[in-house]
């Protein structure tokens, strides 16, 4: 492998290659340019590999793929989690592969994830560049994908002020109201439970984050924005699927260029992402101007902004808008998926259902619904 070559091997290969290219350049100039470009790419890759792994230590096992492109064609386009599970049966719970010169590590167990991301978070908290999603489609607002550094820290600080253990109590009334509405719909139309769940979390987050009340069905324009954004993200969220993620310079190709469908896809995505970040933020600003804004995370962030002419005002505004959007995209679908999984678990396990019901009955009796203050008494739930 490239990383196992010594500096001496490489310098002798460089001398031979340069001599050969010079001898070619007289009779076949274009061929020698192309050869030169390939050669520079190989040396650059070798240097990058040496920087990443100077002692040439072995990587964990995983699909090896083909020379130069690595496992690029094995990166799953659909249901990546199922493919990773299959790979883990063969390779274990740390799976490593290379694709187009980039290194990927799939962490396939909670124990490994804790070891790396909790216990050693000081060295594993950075994020790799994602040209397609972040640079081209505008997902740079998502602090989950921002590189470790002061921009990310400023986002986290703003987020944490409104989503820490003490702050979240004040959102209980919003959650309780949305929950009662959800239970009512579930009782009247149980078959639509999937839609009701989607609407429940959309309603909670839009109200908490923007003070916006969404309509009771899934046709709400704010909800359409988020669904569109998540759909446009689609497979872009799968690390390494797009060639531009491996060769970032491709992001400068103009979108009219033949074969640059990814650029046209990215342009469509960027419009959706911009709408997602800007529209609700502007709506809150407008309500604040009219004195009609409901209390919300974004309203509080806007109220705390430095004065208009302050040098960091524009950046702080961007952070406030980003925090709103990331809370929505990170919180609505994830929470909905957990509740859907909970429904599945309960439907497949009648004993657990009966046990949970008995515990609730013992705690609150038959006349009222449980609320957040009952949580300490509901030990098994
Ligand atoms: C059951 C529900 C949820 C699940 C399973 C979940 C899962 C996750 C996971 C796995 C990450 C790490 C992503 C990464 O590092 O690439 C993450 C990050 C994040 N989540 Fe959640 N989440 C949930 C609910 C929420 C809610 C309700 C919010 C907001 C109100 C939220 C906001 C965030 C944010 C802002 C980040 C990025 C944090 C950072 O990188 O500093 N999540 N979530």
TrEMBL record:
Coiled-coil region(s) at which residues? none
The highest taxon in the source lineage is: Eukaryota
Q: Which cofactor does it need?
A: heme
Q: Which GO terms describe its molecular function?
A: heme binding; iron ion binding; monooxygenase activity; oxidoreductase activity, acting on paired donors, with incorporation or reduction of molecular oxygen
What are the protein's UniProt keywords?
Heme, Iron, Metal-binding, Monooxygenase, Oxidoreductase
Fetch the Pfam families from UniProt: p450
Q: Which PANTHER family match?
A: P450, PUTATIVE (EUROFUNG)-RELATED, P450, PUTATIVE (EUROFUNG)-RELATED-RELATED
Please report which protein family the annotation says this sequence is part of. Answer: Belongs to the cytochrome P450 family.
The name under which this protein is listed is Cytochrome P450
The record lists the organism as Panaeolus cyanescens
Q: What is the lineage of its organism?
A: Eukaryota, Fungi, Dikarya, Basidiomycota, Agaricomycotina
């Amino acid at each position: 492998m490239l990383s196992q070559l010594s500096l001496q091997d490489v310098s002798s290969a460089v001398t031979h290659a340069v001599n050969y290219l010079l001898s070619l350049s007289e009779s076949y100039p274009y061929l020698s340019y192309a050869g030169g470009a390939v050669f520079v790419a190989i040396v650059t890759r070798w240097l990058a590999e040496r920087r990443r792994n100077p002692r040439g230590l072995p990587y964990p096992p995983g699909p090896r793929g083909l020379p130069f492109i690595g496992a690029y064609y094995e990166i799953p386009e659909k249901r990546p989690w199922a493919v990773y599970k299959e790979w883990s049966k063969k390779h274990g719970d740390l799976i490593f592969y290379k694709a187009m010169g980039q290194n990927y590590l799939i962490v396939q167990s909670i124990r490994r994830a804790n070891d790396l991301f909790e216990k050693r978070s000081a060295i594993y908290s950075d994020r790799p560049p994602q040209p397609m999603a972040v640079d081209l489609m505008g997902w740079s607002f998502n602090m989950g994908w921002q590189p470790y550094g002061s921009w990310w820290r400023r986002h986290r600080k703003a987020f944490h002020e409104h989503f820490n253990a003490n702050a979240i109590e004040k959102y209980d009334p919003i959650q309780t109201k949305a929950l009662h509405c959800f239970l009512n719909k579930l009782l009247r139309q149980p078959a639509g439970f999937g839609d009701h769940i989607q609407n429940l979390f959309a309603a909670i987050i839009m109200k908490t984050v923007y003070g916006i009340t969404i309509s009771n069905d899934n046709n709400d324009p704010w909800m359409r924005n988020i669904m569109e954004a998540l759909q446009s993200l689609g497979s872009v969220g799968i690390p390494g699927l797009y060639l531009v993620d491996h060769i970032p310079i491709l992001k400068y190709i103009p979108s009219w260029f033949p074969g640059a469908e990814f650029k046209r896809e990215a342009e469509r995505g960027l419009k959706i992402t911009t709408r997602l970040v800007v529209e609700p933020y502007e709506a809150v600003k407008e309500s604040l101007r009219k004195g009609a804004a409901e209390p919300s995370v974004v309203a509080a962030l806007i109220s705390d902004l430095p004065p208009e002419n302050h040098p960091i005002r524009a950046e702080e505004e961007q952070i406030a808008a980003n925090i709103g959007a990331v809370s929505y995209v990170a919180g609505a679908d994830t929470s909905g998926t957990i509740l859907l999984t909970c429904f599945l678990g309960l439907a497949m396990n009648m004993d657990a259902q009966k046990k949970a019901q008995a515990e609730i009955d013992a705690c609150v009796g038959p006349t009222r619904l449980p609320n957040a203050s009952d949580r300490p008494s509901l030990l098994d739930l």
